[in-house]
């Protein structure tokens, strides 16, 4: 459904608007007086630190049980214990499940286990990487594209029938893909290649980690736009927490001058992870159905990257959608989508 915005996609995507939001716009927290998630369960990936941990805290504060999807269960368990203790929660309010987005088999196993749940109706796909140096996954794709785009989309599709089945009466479940301002800044030069996805198996002429990260997030926006036109039985949104410091380890690989530059940027511009997490929580609670097929910043629906709403973006979204389903055809993703479509 089209949404009327009070700002153009181009203006929202400007660096000036980004700086303004970072310095002067603070979304309100979601209070337990307006939202009660008792009896519901949410999956949060990348939940052991940073924004993912704060999303988990805030959902728990609204009465929601949380499954933390983590690469290393040994790191997840101490975090779980802290959350249980600080919230004085029952032990079963937080669970730790293994989920390694670098492995399709891990995603398949996770989804198979999740089928046994009868109340998983929220999923927040927050896990991602920011690669300082270029590297390629066993699938042949650059690691950032593999993790941030292909693996997250595979997980999203795998969860569709589960989230649909467990929707509360008269409502839909919700899957939120965490996005980024950088999607709007990506040059996305690969968009002129046909087919599109194989371009990400080739080394960049000059490695640009910001460009590659932004492109991986832009691909997510394009795919979600195409998917949301076909699936309405599950609410699908993407949300941008903004630049967050004080716990976020997205740039954990950075060293030397790069690490210094990142820390300086965070010192000047970043909001806390707790503030950034509010946007994600608003997306799946106060906005919920309004956010279907849309992008959330703060507590409002905002334009996606400018290209998404352009004619070129519409064509790219459809092409990317078809190529992605073909790439993931080994898991029957097209049939999964058809099974939840209206």
TrEMBL record:
Name the keywords, alphabetized.
Oxidoreductase
Q: Which InterPro entries match?
A: NAD(P)-bd_dom_sf, SDR_fam
List the Pfam families.
adh_short
Q: Give the molecular function GO annotations.
A: oxidoreductase activity
Taxonomic superkingdom: Eukaryota
Q: What's the name of the protein?
A: NAD(P)-binding protein
* Upper classification of the organism: Eukaryota, Fungi, Dikarya, Ascomycota, Pezizomycotina
